[in-house]
Amino acid sequence: MAATFRQLLDDLRAAGELVEISKPVDIRYIAALVDQAETALLFTNVIGYDMPVVSGVLNSRERLSIAMDCPFDEIEGRVRRGLDRPVEPKTVNAGPAREVIQEGDDVDLFRLPIPLFSVLDGGPMITAGITLAKDEEHGLNAGIYRFLVKDRNTTGIDIVTPNNMRNFAEKAFKAGKPLPISINIGAHPSEIIAATYKAPIGTNEVAIAGGMMGDAVDMTPCRTVDVPCLANAEIVLEAEILPTGWTRPEGRFGEFTRLMGGLHWNPLVRVKAVSMRQDAVYYALHMPWENIWPSGPIYEAAVRRACKEAGVQVTAVNITPGGCCHWHATIAIKPHTGDGKNAMMAALSVADMKHVTVVDDEIDVFDSVDVEWAVATRVQADRDVMIVSNARAKPLDPSLVTIPGKVPTTAKMGIDATISDDVPRERFQRIAYAYADKVDLADYLGDGIAASKSPADADIAALATRIKDVIEAEPKYFAELTEMFEAEGFQAVTRAIGVLHEGEELWQDDVGRLCLQGSSFAAVRPTA
Fold it and tell me: Does 282 score more than 90 pLDDT?
């Protein structure tokens, strides 16, 4: 696994997942170009700026897999490792992030190539900054927040919703003091994923990142504020959340919902120093997809943990991008009686989860058609759909009905699309084409030699007797018989079976296999 953001860029480039754009680019075009790209983009010639910009680093499963050095469906396991076996960060007195330091009047945020994302944004905003703060009681906290640039050394910080960073800021505000923070831009994806995890207050998210990577994260003290920073970051802003309170309007912001949010009221942030690598690259986390994708493994870990506590054996979880990697989960399980409902209720208990679909383990949870097929063929709404009213809501849900002075709540829904115990499982045997595992279309394309003739005419009557002996002992599907008597040729087998039909000797068992009429295997027509 790449240990730093810079090493990750090298890995993406080697995998063909990062393309360099050397032609001059207007910074206003970056967001639109990344949206059109199938890879991450590195802009090395941004008009008016000396620093390259990279974006789109984490907006696909493939790139997240490269970042975490494992298949996408194993990233959740890395998250669980970080949660279960965190590794405390290591303090060092150096690091690439300290190669260049600008303080005081030298601080000029306008020199950083911070793009505009949406036409409705309130201005350029820092989107990839891992924010670190300390509290005497609860220790170090990490989170990712947006910083809308206001002037050369002032931003806002978007902490409008309740979270641990807001708790720290409110505590400092009540004391009339600024809250020291470091804003770390260009960090490893493990650190980004850990910073977005909604850990209980007092949890060190940087230690979670260390557990995910299997090694301690290097941290180094800031020079102008009493808080550490990530030693391997591309750029670090040393700053303070000013005790202005939530009094300054800013926004609008593009949200993870893929919609524009409204105006927010936030505190101000004063940047006291900027430190960076000698050849720093500015990371513009692309909204909303780079905000959405890293959330998937976090919610997957939470859903798996909730289901495990409920005693349900989960085989796969898809936190779907269509659900903004926050609201929707599709869960495959090996069900015992009632496990579909238990999994549904357990998953809906996870903080922001809104809609959950539970399927059997032979359903591909990453194939929306397969999941929809399971819902269509296995669900009776009055039996398998559960709705919970007045649950805790994610405030950014645009479907919520808001009443002034009242905290909005949401309705949660679960769909149990596992096969009911009361329904015969043979109803759900999928169509499987004969010999699909033996033939390859590529072998039959192009010119070929003349088709070989069928085997010489067999003794049809004798073959019929042999087939009769087989199905007398055990019922067989038609395709099984053609395979057993392949040497006689398909047409000979069909003719022989035809002889048995003409003699009214054939019947079928309950699942459609051929057997003899009157045998113990023969299906009995149900009475009306």
Answer: yes
Among the three residues 232, 260, 291, which one is the final residue of a domain in this structure? 291
Instruction: Write the CATH number for 504.
Output: 1.10.10
The amino acid present at 254, given as its one-letter code, is G
φ, ψ (nearest 5 deg) of residue 6? -65, -40
Q: How far apart are CA 375 and CA 381, in angstroms?
A: 10
Q: In the listed set 264, 291, 318, which residue is the last one of a domain according to the structure?
A: 291
Question: What is d(CA 89, CA 468) in angstroms, rounded to the nearest whole number?
Answer: 74
Domain that holds residue 470: 441-516
* Residue 407, number of CB atoms within 10 A of its CB: 9
DSSP letter, residue 55: E
The b/e string for 350-370 (b: 16+ C-beta within 10 A; e otherwise) is: bebbbbbbbbbbebbbbeeee
CATH number, residue 148: 2.30.110.10
| Rounded CA separation 451/225 (Å) | 82
pLDDT in tens, 87-123: 999 999 989 999 999 998 999 999 999 988 877 777 8
List the Cα angle 490/496/500 in 5-degree steps: 140
Report whether 149 contacts 110 (CB < 8 A).
yes
Instruction: Tell me how many domains the chain contains.
Output: 3
- Both 118 and 80 in a single domain? yes
Structure tokens at 37: 């790209």
Which string of b and e fits 301-339 if b means at least 16 CB within 10 Å? Answer: bbbbbbbeebebebebbbbbbebbbbbbbbbbbebeeeb
What is the spatial distance between Cα 165 and Cα 171, in angstroms, rounded to a whole number? 10
Residues 307 and 456 in one domain: no
| Predicted TM-score of the model (pTM) | 0.72
How do residues 73-94 score in pLDDT, each as one tens digit? 788 888 889 989 999 999 999 8
Cα 9 to chain centroid distance, Å, stands at: 21
Burial (0-12, 13-18, 19+ Cβ within 10 Å), 457: exposed
Q: What angle in degrees, to the nearest 10, is found between the helix axes of 5-14 and 61-68?
A: 120
